[in-house]
Amino acid sequence: MLLARITARGGGRGCFHPGALQADGPEGCNHTSDQRLCSVHLPGVNRLSCTSGQQLSGRVSMEMEAVYENIKGNPQDSSKKKAIYGNLNTVQPSHGGPDPEWPEARDAAFGSCSGILLTSILLVLAISLPALATLYVQGRRQLREVKATAQEIASHLQLNSTVELEGAQLLGNIRKRVSLIVEQLGNVTAEKQETQARLDSVTAEKQKIQTRLNSIITEKQRIQTHLDNATAEKQDTQAQLDHVMALQESLKCEHGTALTMCSAGWVYHSGHFYYFSQDQKSWAEAEQFCVSQDSHLSSITSKEEQEYLSKRTQGKAHWIELTDQKSAGTWRWVDGTKYSKAQSGEFWVPGQPDSKTQGPRGRASCVEMKESQTAAWSNVSCTARRRWICKKALRQAVS
Asked: Which keywords accompany this UniProt record (predicted)?
């Protein structure tokens, strides 16, 4: 707007039309002394110079036309259009010859164009320099940022390169370790297999030893059974040997020391000599006689012995060694043989022993046998007179 208005006052100065700068016609510039907008015709002006002016004013004309088209297209801005063109006079075509003041007008127009051009250049420079300075500063800052970024990238790249190198080395070390571990694992596997083979061998050997041990235990049990049998056989043999020795001793009754006992009325039976008296004595007197013969009244410890003596006495009463004189009801054998009620209970006559007294003879504390049967014992007074039986062991007689 500012560059588009060129006033022509008094001297007929040329001016620009908003459309374009016309420099190729011979016409002059119609003007009045009043202010108005007119077209400029500059005949003979160098096209190059005008071209420069035209380039500068072209931008202004384009802006003016844009404003004009904007106002033209907007009916609401008709008042603005009238305000713009209200002060402008219609451009009239000129008639007649050249203006006698054409050179001055040309110089004035050229000066105006040069001033406008210079002003435009200065204005453009004034506007552009801060922008250029700002762009320069921004460019410098961006350049520094780019350099910093480049350095950072280079640092990262170097770091990445270092890390990659270290990673490669670490990977190599890991691979070596893995190979070593795999090798060691193979060795361990081989050792495990060897150990398992040894374990299997030891297990098999253990089973063999266990089998042998079981066989030995079985053999030991068999030997123990044989040993028990041999022990029993030994005991039987010992019993037989004792019996043989008794037989030998009985034979000595006829040959040697025992011959005297046999001639004195002693009878041998099952390892013992027995003396059966023919006269009668009290129990104490009979015991005293037996002791004088290095013996005692006979004790009876088995059924076989009881039956043998019953047969020999033929139902006649004879004293035996059993008595309770020291403690009533407590029966005992004088020679120290243990009395067993369970073993000797069947040898008593039914109802015996009893605790009755026999008048002046006193308590019945001594035992006689008089029945020719197993149950032949009775307790009577010790002062009664009876036959008696003395008993001496074979070895005792020989010694």
From this structure: Coiled coil, Disulfide bond, Lectin, Membrane, Transmembrane, Transmembrane helix
Antiparallel, parallel or unpaired: β 387-393 and 318-323: parallel
Could you tell me the CATH number of the domain that includes residue 381? 3.10.100.10
DSSP state of 24: S
pLDDT per position as a tens digit, 259-297:
677 767 899 888 889 999 999 999 999 999 999 999 999
Domain count, the chain: 3
Pairs from 90-95 (Cβ < 8 Å, separation ≥ 24): 91/17, 91/30, 91/37, 91/38, 91/39, 92/30, 93/27, 93/30, 94/27, 94/28, 94/29, 94/30, 94/41
Residue 189 in any domain: the answer is yes
Instruction: Give how far the C-alpha of residue 153 lies from the chain's centroid of Cα atoms, to the nearest Å.
Output: 51
Burial grade of 233 (CB within 10 A; 0-12, 13-18, 19 or more): exposed
Q: How many beta carbons lie within 10 A of that of residue 318, not counting itself?
A: 22
- pLDDT at residue number 384: 93
Of 108-122, 222-236, 260-274, minimum mean pLDDT range: 108-122
Q: Which domain, by its residues, includes 356?
A: 265-398
Question: H or E element: which one contains 369?
Answer: strand 366-369
Q: Are residues 277 and 394 both part of a single domain?
A: yes
Residue 268 φ then ψ, to 5°: -90, 135
Give the mean pLDDT of 356-378: 80
pTM over 0.85: no
pLDDT digits (tens, 9 = 90+) for 51-97: 444 454 455 455 555 555 554 555 555 554 454 444 444 444 444 45
How much of the chain exceeds pLDDT 90, in percent? Answer: 31
Q: Which residues of 20-30 are buried (b: 16+ CB within 10 A; e: fewer)?
A: ebebeeebbbb
Of the two residues 120 and 382, the one the predictor is more confident about is 382
Residue 380's contacts (CB-CB under 8 Å, 6 or more residues apart) are 358, 364, 366, 367, 368, 386
Residue 318 region by backbone torsions, left for phi larger than 0, else alpha for psi between -120 and 50, else beta: beta
Handedness of CA 323, 326, 329, 330 (dihedral sign): negative
Distance CA 289, CA 113 (A): 197
First to last CA, the chain: 181
Residue 293: CB atoms within 10 Å: 15
Q: Which residues contact 49 (CB under 8 A, 6 or more apart)?
A: 110, 113
